[in-house]
Every structure is written in C-alpha cells, then in structure tokens.
From TrEMBL, chain A:
Protein name per Swiss-Prot or TrEMBL: Sugar ABC transporter permease
Species this protein is from: Actinocatenispora rupis
Biological process per Gene Ontology, one example term: transmembrane transport
Keyword Transmembrane among UniProt keywords: yes
Top-level taxon in the UniProt lineage: Bacteria
Keywords, ordered alphabetically: Cell membrane, Membrane, Transmembrane, Transmembrane helix, Transport
Automatic annotation (TrEMBL), chain B:
GO molecular function term, any single one: maltose binding
GO biological process: maltodextrin transmembrane transport; maltose transport
Keywords tagged on the record: Signal, Transport
Family membership: Belongs to the bacterial solute-binding protein 1 family.
Protein name: Carbohydrate ABC transporter substrate-binding protein, CUT1 family
Organism in which the protein naturally occurs: Actinocatenispora rupis
Signal peptide residues on this chain, from the entry's feature table: 1-25
UniProt key word Signal: yes
A single cellular component GO annotation: ATP-binding cassette (ABC) transporter complex, substrate-binding subunit-containing
UniProt entry tagged with the keyword Mitochondrion: no
PANTHER family the record matches: MALTOSE-BINDING PERIPLASMIC PROTEIN, MALTOSE_MALTODEXTRIN-BINDING PERIPLASMIC PROTEIN
Length: 355, 410
C-alpha cells in the first residue's frame, strides 16, 4: 500500500514512458514464459485445486468427482480426521508423531553430513576431487526403490549390519520387528517405567494416543529408514553447500589468514556466517522432504512394525486406495500441506537475516 | 491470483470433460473397441496362460482382446473407474467386492451364466461373491489355509502319519515335540488372515453371515487368540517375523519351523526357492467348533461402464469353462473354482489335496469397505499381542471399535 501511494504522489514528469521496444520485450517475455506457466497451471495448480475439491466430497474413487455424482460433504472429511475419536485420527496422530521424530533426527543429521561432505570435496589440496564428488552424489541419482530393497537386506536380523555389530560383541536388534520406540526401549530397559502399569500422566490420552505413545521416540525400523534418507539425500544437499562454499570470495579467506585466524576460527567466523543462506535452504528442503516420505515406506515396511513407520503421505495413499475413502485421503494431504507451511514459516523465522 | 484461479478452474473443467467421454457411449451390445482384460499376474506363466485363453476366444468370435498385466491392480482399476474408462474384464476379490458394487462399478452378471455353471462353483465361493442377493462375479480359482508339514523333521521327531493333528490339542502336542533348538514347531503368519482361520475353527469370525455387523469381541475369537498367544509364549509357535522371515513360507522353507499354516501358494514358493524341502500338507486341525479355514480367491469382474458387456460375459463364460480352468491349473497351479473339477485337481496335484478339501467348510474374506485399514490395524494389534504388548481381549476390543466405525460410515 505504501509503495502504491508514493508512486501516485510522484510528479507525472518522472513517469517512464514505454518505448515500443520495451513493449515488444515484454511481449516476448510473456510469450517465452507462457509454456512453463501453462504446464505449471495444468499439472500443478489444477490438480491441487481438484484435490482440494475432492477433500470436500464423499468420493469412492469410482466416478467422475466433477460430475456431481459424489456427495458434497463440506468439512466433514476434516472433522472426521481431526475431531472424531476413531481409527483414522489415531492413525493420523501416529503418522504425525513418527514424522516429528523423523524430522528431529533427519534434518540435523543430513545438514551436518552434507555440510561436512561439501567441506571435504571443496578442499583444493584434495586429490581426485571429481571422483569424490561423483561418489558422494551417486546415492541421489539411484532409484529410491533399489536403495530401499538394499537397506532391507542390510538390516535383516541376520543381515550385514548385525553381522558387523556382532563382531564388536553387540547383539543387534531385529530391526523391522520391534514396534517400540527408542525412548520406550530405554525407559523400560532401565526399569524407570513399567509399560504394563503406566503412571497416570503417561497413560493420559491426546488425539487417540497416550502420552507414553507420543513420547515413544522413533522405532529401530524408523531409524533404519532415517539412515537411508540421510545417506541418499546428502549428495544433493552437498551440492547446495558446495556452490555456497565456492561463492565465498577467496580474498575474505585470505584476509582472515593474514589476520592470523586458526582453521577453526576461520570456519567459525568466516565460513559459517557466509553459509547462512545455503544452510537455510538445505534445512528448509530437508524439512519439507521429511513430511513427504512415501516411497521408502511403501517399499520397505508399509508402516510396520506397529505403525511406527507410518507417514502422513503413506496414510493418505492407503486411506484413498485401500479403503476407497478418497475424500479422507485428500483431507490428509491438505492438513499435511498446512503442517509443512507452518513448520517452514517457523523455521524461516528462526533462520531470517538479523541486522 | 484471480486469473490463476480462473485458469485452474478452466483446466479442471477441461479435464473433467475428457474424463466423462464414456458416459454417453453405448451401454451394451456392440462397440468395435477391443475387450480389455486387466489382471495382477503372478509371473510369466500366468500372463502367458491368460493371453492364450484370450487368443482362443478371439479366434472363435473374431472380436479383438487386449490383455494387460497390471503393476498395481487396485490403483490402476481405480484410475480406470474414476476416468470412466475401466478395463472391461479384471481380476478382483471379495475384499473389494462391496466397495466396487456400492460404487456402481461392478456389473452383476451372475444371472447370465448358465445355472449349471453357477451351481458348479463351490458354495463358499458363491457366497463370497454374492452381495445383496446378486452374484456379481464368477470365481476363477480358490485357495485355502492348510497345515504344511516338513516331513523330514516330522520323521526325525519320531512321528508318523497317524500323528497328523486332528484337534488343537494335538497341534500343541506335535508342535511341542517338533520344537528343537534349531527350529520351532509351527510358524503362523501373525496377521488377520491366519488368525482368522483359527477364529473360524473356534466358531467365531470378524463379521456376521452377511457382512453387516462386526462380531470381533466374541468369546470364540478370544479363545482363538488365547490359544495362539499361549503357544507363542511357550515358544512352540512363532510368527515369521520373529524367525526373521518375510512370510511363513520363507520361515518354513529355511527350516526355521517344522510346520506352517499356509495357503496352496506355498507350493510355488517352495518349488522355486527351497526345492530341497520335503513336505506334505494336511487339513487344519479342528478347533472347539470343528474344522475351519479361510478361502481366498479371485474372480472375473466386469465393469458396469464397459461398452461391451455382452461380449465380456461371453468371454468370461469361456474363461471359467472346465477345459480352460484345467489349462490354468496346468500352467500356473491355481485350483479350479468348480466342484466337478475337485477330484481332477487332487489327482493333478496330490500335494494340494488338503487345500481343495478345505473349501467344503471354508469361509471367504471380509468384504466391508473401509475394512482394509481396520484389518491393518488389527495386524498391528496382533504384532503387539505376540510380542507381549497387549492382551487378546484388548486387541479384539480395538478391532470391534474400529470395525463398528467402518460399518457406520458405509
């Protein structure tokens, strides 16, 4: 509004006249961007609006949702999902809980790992830099289904991971069968809490889950999936960090060197502050990606053991295609959308440039 | 922004317009479009057999048939239904029957089949595909749970054919005897399917006769769960997961269990992955209320929106004909859905005798829309039950509550 008023108040002599050239350039600009805009409208915006419409219907997926044959139910799918104490809400709460733990582990780990990888391959003295860059990036271009199956073999009870653990005398867990969370395992293992007789505040319910279940922590199966995504997505994020590192002017580094700063001081005082933008970008993307996990779950666990690897995206799929409740499935997708926006907003507020 | 929404809305209308093309098509009789068969294939053998059957019909009638093996049948079918262009003929099963019938996607053609054909289908199969008094779908095959036994381990434990368990008490006894430090006596898939067969033997089940009421927390079901849980706790039964296997067939094939409650499909698995295992299969032992087992099957569904329903029915008639069912069994081992072929099937594959015999007292899977996630949740409860995280009564109560909810929302 402010900008508008200033412009209006400005004397007319200052108004730039459009030459025929600018008009032509503008037209060309619109023309060149038109195909991309059209594609986005048709394949991104339109399906989103369609899904929004579906989330307001009682639609079984067997008719055209725009022909009027599906009953319009308004916000009923949303109130069923969030307000009715049933299986769907309990499943949704479970999937949100799982994802919260997923975010808590995945985002910091992948950020630190990919930053570290970027630092390593950015060193001028490193031999075979190109080779390492390719190797680190490789998981990102490999099919997530193939990686999922491979990890499934690694984490089998008699798989490679447990074989290595047994070398150092550790009895590995059976990764994909224990439905307890890590926190539960520790608390029950140390005898602090007896799962058979929960104290009152731990047994209290919220969204259909007890506090004990909310605080469960990620299951070992979920940890395996987190390890997988950290490993497979670190390559892409490494590239973001790498381009950030290469944007740091050499003069700044050299100036710090001349000032007698140690390696750690240079990292802490020069590199890190200058990498703020890259870090914000990576954290944002990792955060959004965490809420959309689907293929790993679809391939590896289908939500088991004990629904500890159920994610909102996978729940949306099974609700739609398994139960034929496409309205409910679409509603999950939009609540998920709201959650992602909320988290990203909070995270951007924390990561904003402070003067 | 306004322009954006307007453009989006226009695109939506455009797409919706595309999708409704079939609504106005001729509803019956003669379209020249080829007939499409979509099915979830178990592999090359099945795909080849269906293609051969379709080719034979095509040669006889001169009408073209397209055979499409699906990657993900449920998903691809839904896409077809929603877009108004479903395949004319497709595999489906009792779990989806009500959902598709309620949605008006399934064409109930049972009354167009000859009475002799319908009467020849096993009653359990007929019942599984009958909804609101109409036979919707012609069953194409069947499978039931049987008790699969590793004969080498059986002999090693000093047991003979006379010891094949007749009752649950017998089963506990032989399982205990067969349990060694290398393997357990019996592996039971800790999911609703296997547990369901035990529920039937105890006189219980998930729902009532006509799939309208949930009957989960009955004393009979409780008895079944307690029986299984007790034996798991005594470590003579074990779930495949606790034996580090994906499914019971794998645990059995790897020699981690001497017996396995499994369907006839285990034969294919054992043949290809564990050819050195010697095995036999007997009927499941009787529970407190006699014998019980679950029947699994697929049927030939016909889309209500198919422009070629008459031809499709004719094609299905040829697909369920005795000669064709024999050809299917010879090609990929599925048991025919016709009673008149029972004896032939047992002679062709004697190892599946118990599986075929089971269908006499078997019951089909639950067919209530929304039950997929209810049963998935029950699987989670069972997982907890067998690892000591919950009690049989609590698991059944949760199932009852979720099931009631699903029935209410229908």
């Amino acid at each position: 509004m402010v900008a508008l008023q200033t412009r209006r108040a400005a004397p007319p002599v200052h108004r730039r006249r459009r030459s025929p050239d600018t008009v032509r350039q503008r037209r060309a600009g619109v023309l060149f961007s038109a195909p991309a805009v059209l594609v986005i409208l048709l394949f991104l915006v339109a399906p989103m609006l369609m899904a929004l419409w579906v989330s307001l219907l009682h639609w079984d997926g067997q008719s055209n949702p725009f022909s009027g044959s599906a009953r319009f139910v308004g916000g009923a799918n949303y109130s069923e999902l969030l307000g009715h104490d049933g299986l769907l809400r309990r499943d949704f709460a479970t999937s949100v809980r799982n994802t919260l733990y997923y975010v808590l582990l995945d985002v910091p780990l992948v950020t630190v790992l990919s930053f570290g990888l970027a630092l390593v391959v950015n060193q001028r003295i490193l031999r075979g830099r190109g080779f390492f860059r390719t190797v680190f990036y490789f998981p990102s271009i490999t099919s997530s289904v193939a990686i999922g199956v491979t990890f499934l073999f690694l984490f089998q009870g008699g798989g490679a991971v447990n074989a290595i653990l047994s070398l150092v005398g550790v009895q590995g867990p059976s990764w994909f069968t224990d439905s307890r969370g890590l926190v539960q395992i520790v608390l029950a293992g140390t005898g602090l809490v007896d799962p058979g007789h929960l104290p009152g505040w731990l047994a209290a319910q919220g969204m259909g889950l007890s506090v004990w279940d909310w605080l469960a922590g990620p299951s070992v199966a979920m940890c395996a999936i987190i390890a997988l995504t950290v490993w497979s997505s670190s390559g892409t994020f490494m590239l973001f960090f790498l381009s950030g590192l290469q944007n740091i002017p050499v003069q700044v580094e050299e100036a710090a060197l001349v000032d007698g700063a140690s390696t750690w001081q240079r990292f802490r005082g020069v590199t890190l502050p200058l990498m703020r933008r890259s870090t914000v970008l990576v954290v944002t993307l990792a955060l959004i990606g965490s809420w959309q996990v689907f293929d790993q779950v679809y391939v590896m666990s289908q939500g088991s053991p004990g629904k500890t690897t159920l994610t909102p995206a996978y729940l949306s799929y099974t609700t739609s295609f398994g139960d034929g409740n496409f309205g409910g499935g679409a509603a999950i997708a939009f609540v998920l959308f709201a959650i992602i926006v909320l988290f990203t907003a909070v995270q951007r507020w924390f990561g904003r440039e402070r003067s | 922004m306004k322009a954006l929404i307007a453009a989006g809305a226009a695109a939506v209308l455009l797409l919706a317009g595309c999708g409704s093309g079939y609504d106005s098509a001729k509803s019956d009789g003669g379209s020249d479009k080829p007939i499409t068969i979509m099915f979830g294939s178990s592999g090359e053998a099945e795909t080849g057999a269906v293609k051969a059957a379709a080719a034979a019909w095509q040669k006889r009638t001169g009408h073209q048939v397209r055979v499409v093996p699906a990657q993900n049948l449920t998903q691809q079918l839904t896409q077809g239904f929603a877009g108004g262009t479903p395949p004319d003929i497709f595999y489906t099963d009792p779990t989806m029957l009500q959902q598709y019938a309620d949605g008006g996607s399934l064409y109930p053609y049972g009354d167009q089949l000859p009475k002799s054909t319908v009467d020849d289908f096993y009653p359990a199969l007929r019942q599984a595909y009958t909804y609101q008094g109409k036979l919707y779908c012609a069953p194409k095959d069947l499978n039931t749970h049987a008790l699969v036994i590793n004969t080498d381990m059986w002999k090693a434990a000093g047991l003979t054919e006379k010891d094949y368990p007749k009752t649950w008490a017998d089963l506990t006894k032989v399982a205990t005897r067969l349990t060694t430090k290398d393997h357990v006596g019996l592996t039971v898939g800790g999911d609703h399917n296997t547990v369901g067969s035990f529920m039937l033997a105890a006189g219980g089940w998930f729902v009532n006769e006509d799939n309208t009421k949930v009957t989960a927390n009955s004393p009979a079901n409780l008895a079944a769960l307690k029986y299984l849980q007790g034996n798991v706790q005594r470590k003579v039964f074990a779930t495949p997961k606790s034996l580090d296997a994906q499914n019971p067939g794998e645990a059995f094939g790897k020699g981690k269990a001497a017996m396995d409650v499994d369907g006839g499909w285990v034969e294919g698995q054992l043949k290809s992955d564990y050819p050195n295992v010697h095995w036999t299969a007997v009927e499941l032992p009787a529970g407190p209320k006699g014998r019980g087992t679950t029947v699994f099957s697929n049927c030939w569904g016909i889309a209500a929106k198919s422009p070629n329903k008459k031809l499709a029915v004719d094609l299905v008639k040829s697909l369920v004909a005795p000669g064709q069912q024999k050809a299917f069994m010879n090609a990929f081992g599925v048991i025919p859905s016709r009673q008149s072929l029972g004896t032939w099937a047992k002679q062709t594959d004697p190892k599946l005798t118990a599986v075929v015999d089971g269908v006499e007292y078997a019951r089909g899977t639950v067919s209530i829309p929304g039950f997929t996630s209810v049963l998935a949740d029950f699987d989670t409860q069972l997982e907890k039950l067998f690892t000591g995280g919950t009690s049989p009564q609590a698991a059944l109560d949760t199932l009852q509550r979720n099931g009631d909810d699903a029935v209410k929302q229908k």
